[in-house]
Design goal:
This protein is an alpha+beta fold. It contains 7 helices and 8 strands. It has helices spanning 88-104, 112-127, 132-146, 180-183, 192-203, 206-213, 218-236; strands at residues 2-16, 20-27, 31-37, 56-63, 70-79, 169-171, 177-178, 188-190. The strands form 2 sheets. It has a 5-stranded mixed β-barrel. A 3-stranded antiparallel beta sheet has the order 7-6-8. The longest helix is centred in the last third of the chain and has 19 residues, at 218-236. The chain binds zinc ion (ZN). Residues 156, 158-159, 161, 178-179, 181-182 line the site of zinc ion.
Length: 248
């Protein structure tokens, strides 16, 4: 049995037996972790409020060989999101990001870029809840990119020519992006404006991206949302769970 310490973001908890919980979190040094927190539902317990979803904690846990579930030993709150718990839209957005992480992140496998990107997105929403929609788009694009599912938006998958002109590019069933000539206009047409948004996510932090995207036209917003939805659904081979929708 080994003892580990890591920073971790609580994603979801499930009640177990009378007083315990199963906790799913994204950790900095071990990726997605599922663990048992014993007696945490008793009135006085050593975990206190640290296991509330979306709390950032310092976590100490035991891991037994060949056991999928770890045992939570100690926790310390680094960042509580209790002040946002009455904001239903923000909570739905956090849950959605948590769901996607549970679908995409590798268990027991550190991914520092994914961890830092996730934290930056949670922080961006906490600072500016009104930017939730754009932060979620940013999160989807980066999650797909870091997990290797985002098409190459720089050049046509067939002829390698760059997407510089004003004409749309086309997303094929194989999730590759092609120019007009190579795709013969088959697949989902991706407007230049959407293309531009995807390229912009590469350069900016989530909060900066959301700030700059506030003036983007509704049509582009909708199209980008449909595009990420299509790619995520294709990769998961089902629809993403409970994806928040936004009034246009
Ligand atoms: Zn081409």
């Amino acid at each position: 049995m080994s003892l580990f310490e890591t920073e971790a973001l609580i994603l979801r908890t499930y009640n177990l037996a009378e007083a315990d919980k199963i906790v799913v979190c994204l950790s900095r040094s071990a990726g997605l972790i599922r663990g048992v927190a014993k007696n945490c539902r008793k009135l006085k317990n050593r975990f206190g409020a640290s296991l509330e979803p979306f709390t950032l904690i310092n976590l100490t846990y035991f891991e037994k060989e060949n056991k999928e579930l770890v045992s939570f030993s100690q926790t310390e709150i680094l960042r509580s999101r209790f002040n946002l718990s009455s904001d239903a839209a923000v909570m739905a957005g956090f849950s959605y990001m948590g769901d996607l992480l549970m679908d995409f992140a590798a268990p027991h496998h550190a991914n520092d870029n994914l961890y830092r990107m996730t934290l930056a997105c949670f922080e961006a929403v906490s600072q500016a809840p009104a930017d939730l929609e754009w932060v979620l788009r940013y999160f989807e694009v980066w999650l797909l990119k870091l997990e290797g599912f985002l098409p190459d938006f720089r050049a046509c998958a067939d002829c390698q020519s760059g997407f510089e002109r004003e004409e749309p590019s086309y997303l094929g069933a194989d999730l590759s992006l092609r120019c007009l000539k190579c795709s013969q206009a088959r697949g989902r047409a991706i407007a230049k404006s959407v293309h531009q948004q995807l390229r912009t996510t590469e350069k900016l932090s989530p909060s900066k991206y959301a700030e700059e995207a506030r003036e983007v036209p509704v049509a582009t917003r909708k199209e980008l949302a449909q595009l990420t939805y299509q790619i995520i659904s294709r990769v998961l081979e089902r629809m993403p769970r409970a994806r928040p929708t936004f009034a246009q």
